[in-house]
Amino acid sequence: MSALSGEFAAYLALVLVGFLPNEVWRWLAVIFSRGLDEDAEILIWVRAVATAILAGVIAKLTIFSPGVLATIPTPLRLGAVLVGVIGFLLVRRSVFAGVLAGEAALILGALLVGR
Amino acid sequence: MSSPPEPQPASTLAAFRAGLNATWTSAFTYVLFANYVGIGAISHDFGFTITWTLVATVLVWAGPAQVILVSMLGAGASLFEVALAVGLSGVRLLPMVVSMLPMVKRPGVRSWKLVLPAHFTAVSIWVEALRLLPAVPREGRIAFINGLGTGYSICALAAALVGYYLAAKMPTLISAALLFLTPLAFLMSTLRNARMLVDRLALGLGLVIGPLFAYWQIGLDLLWSGVVGGTAAYAIHRVREALQ
Fold this sequence. Notes:
The complex is a heterodimer.
Chain A: H1 3-32, H2 41-63, H3 74-90, H4 95-113
Chain B: H1 10-25, H2 27-45, H3 50-60, H4 63-74, H5 79-90, H6 93-104, H7 115-120, H8 123-132, H9 141-166, H10 172-193, H11 197-215, H12 221-243
């Protein structure tokens, strides 16, 4: 395949199988949210579903980690998340403190375990 | 970044700028940066060009979808399989955008004006919007989200560029730590935003049900764990309100 058509194919693939299947959910959301106002009762449920999906993403990334994160032992990853939550609670519910504490625990733990 | 095509009232520009400025004080900016350094690196490793990587960052604008796109296309999966996997990962955007747009719009606003804020909506914007929007005057909220989204996009593009060219030199532990930022930051932000009982329940239930459904290899596990966990949390919330 010539470089030009290869390059063109890569952009075509990006739009057809990367952009459209992802973006369609946002367009549907624009349609579904018509006529809903901020205090609509159904939004409490919708937000709960979104929160639960996000929680599932968090747990899956931690337990069934992708790529090189899988080289860190699972108990260490779970422990680091716990340290992060403790840091978050101790420092005025600060996201930054929580992330920092969790990352520090992961890196120190990995160095101690000898990876 | 181009200037708006027609003269805008000062308040719109001010709101856009306020959104843009909010980028630099948001903890998510750092997470986003680290995340896209990782995405730039895998894009390099799978042999995509830097231009393709940057265009993909802007068009897809969702970290997990881009990781799936790059790794599956790069590994030679069929286009149909890639579209399916990307589409499934994008389902979570639907409830996020539906719950955010009513905070953003005014009665009578044209739908096309919501397409850009909807495009910018990913986990980072969703979490920050729920936190920051209540303090923004309603007429400036669309511009505020567009400003915030533009700021995040600039940051992600810079990060993808850095990751693309550093790919070969990154030690494993650093790559692992970069990937670990995503679950950590998502968890902390959701914890901070979850003020109502229903949100806390949804978070707790999702944390347990999500990996269980994945372990049992239920198809569309994330979608189902969201519907089951979210609905259970909502039901408990309703029962509790009825009892009070």
